[in-house]
Amino acid sequence: MRxxxxxxxxxxxxxxxTVLRRDGIAVDVAFDGAEALERTSLATYDVIVLxxxxxxxxxxxxxxxxxAGGYPGAVLMLTAAGTLADRVTGLRIGADDYLAKxxxxxxxxxxxxxxxxxxRRPRPPTLVRGDLMLDSARRTVTRAGAPxxxxxxxxxxxxxxLGADGAAVSSEEILERAWDDTxxxxxxxxxxxxxxxxxKLGEPPVIETVTPVGYRxxxxxxxxxxxxxx
Length: 230
What we know:
This protein is α/β, with parallel strands linked by helices. The protein has two domains: about 1-120, Response regulator (Rossmann fold, 3-Layer(aba) Sandwich), CATH 3.40.50; about 125-220, Orthogonal Bundle (Arc Repressor Mutant, subunit A), CATH 1.10.10. It has eight helices and eleven strands. It has helices at about 10-20, 35-40, 60-70, 85-90, 105-120, 150-165, 170-180, 190-200, and strands at about 1-5, 25-30, 45-50, 75-80, 95-100, 125-130, 130-135, 140-145, 145, 210, 215. It is elongated and about 55 Å long.
């Protein structure tokens, strides 16, 4: 999942970003409405956490612009005004959810996950290929019934590959969806993460390299049938 946090208070913005990143989410931060619009024009975010009272371009106008342009990501609007009228106004201009300040960080994370599930194409919370199972709700992975302990980035990459339904996913797409925009585009982070995943998932091999496209986890019947590692 990739999230944009648009919040003009740097300390709050970084706190929210840090908590989301600990949950395995790639997060970018914008400190005003103009920057938020610029970032959404360059990247597709699953969720935009949008402060309503942004400088330069007001959060309401950011939300209206995203909705008018058919932006695919969901909007979670934050505001210091928590009256019923404020919530109704926020929802009417196109926000998908509304959270009044002050809020509990755990609730914000839960709402972000819920919005991301709604904005994606429907898929089961548990992804299975052969004896490999990933539970996205509990954030657990098992192989042949045994637990596999993964880092947040390893979990995110595995979820992307399993969610592709056997199709190959490029390194560029994995980097865009699992890392934020501060990551060097020429980094070998994807290759190293896939290498660690292969080691942790064990034998027979699960992740195939599809040269020159990227990586894939094949259908149940093909898992372990061949090894095209690079």
